[in-house]
Amino acid sequence: MLGYLLQVSNCILNSEFSLGPIIASRRLDDDDDLQNEMQIAVRLKKVGEPIGDTLFGKTVFILGYGNIGIELAKRLHPFGVKILATKRNWASYVPNGFSSTEPKSQNGTHEDWVDEKGFHENIYEFAKKSDIVVCCLTMNSETAGIINKNFLSSMRKGGLLVNIARGGLLDYKAVYDSLESSHLGGLGIDVAWTEPFDPDDPILKFPNVLLTPHVAEVTESSYRSMAKVCF
C-alpha cells in the first residue's frame, strides 16, 4: 500500500513540475529578445510591455498517456487547452491498477481528459498539430531516441518540447540542431542525456532552454513517503 502511495505521489510531482516550463514558455519567447525587452521595461518603468502569449487555446500533445500523462492532462484541462495523447492501448480503465487522486471526468474515465487519442503511428501527425509536446514515455529499446530529427521536423516551428521522463528518449544532436535552427522554440527538461549534467554542455547556450537537475520528485513530501516505505 505504501509503495502504491509513493507511485501516486511521484506521478503527481512529475505532472506538476512539467507545468513550469509550459507556463514559462508563454511569457518567455523562443529567443532572448523578449527577455531583454522585459528587463528594459523594468529599468524604464514601463507598464504593460512587452506582449506575451497565453496557454489558453493552445494544443498540447502528451506523448505517453500513462500515469504521469493522466495527472498532467487533468492539470492542463482548466487552462483551456486542447489535449492530444498517444498510448499503446486505449480502454476505459487505467493500466497497473493506478487510481488518480482526483475525481474522474464526467463519464467516468480518465480518457475523457483527452480531446484526440492516438497510437504510436500517430505521433508525427500529432506533433504537427501541437504547440507543446510533453514526453512522458517509458524508456526502452523501442522508445530510445524517439524524439529524433523526423519527429522534431514534424513539430510546428516555435513549438515547445518538455521531457520529464528519461533523457535517452531525446536524440541530443537532433534537439541541438533544432534549437540552433530556431525550429524548436523552447526546451524544458528535468532529465538529461548524461547525469550529472555537464555544466559546460553547449546546449545551455540557448536562452530558451530550461534545465533542472532531475528534481521533479525531490520534495519534502516525497522523501517522507519514501521513508515510510523503507522503514
Explain what the structure shows.
- The protein has 231 residues and is α/β, with parallel strands linked by helices.
- The chain has a single domain (2-230), classed as Rossmann fold.
- It contains seven helices and seven strands; from the N terminus they run ααβαββαβαβαββα.
- The chain has helices at residues 2-25, 33-43, 67-76, 123-129, 149-154, 172-180, 220-230; strands at residues 59-63, 82-86, 116-118, 132-135, 159-163, 184-189, 209-211.
- It has a seven-stranded parallel beta sheet with strand order 3-2-1-4-5-6-7, sandwiched between helices.
- Helix 1 runs antiparallel to helix 7 (220-230).
- Residues 1-6 and 92-108 have low confidence and may be disordered.
CATH topology: Rossmann fold
Helical element count? 7
Instruction: Compute the number of structural domains.
Output: 1
The general outline is: globular
Residues in β-strands, percent: 5-15%
Strand count: 7
Strand order of the largest sheet: 3-2-1-4-5-6-7
- The level of helicity is 25-40%
CATH superfamily: NAD(P)-binding Rossmann-like Domain
- End-to-end Cα distance, whole Å, is 14 Å
| Alpha-beta content class | alpha/beta
Radius of gyration: 18 Å
> How do the SSEs run, as a string of H and E?
HHEHEEHEHEHEEH
Short description:
The chain is built from seven helices and seven strands. By secondary structure, the protein is an alpha/beta fold.
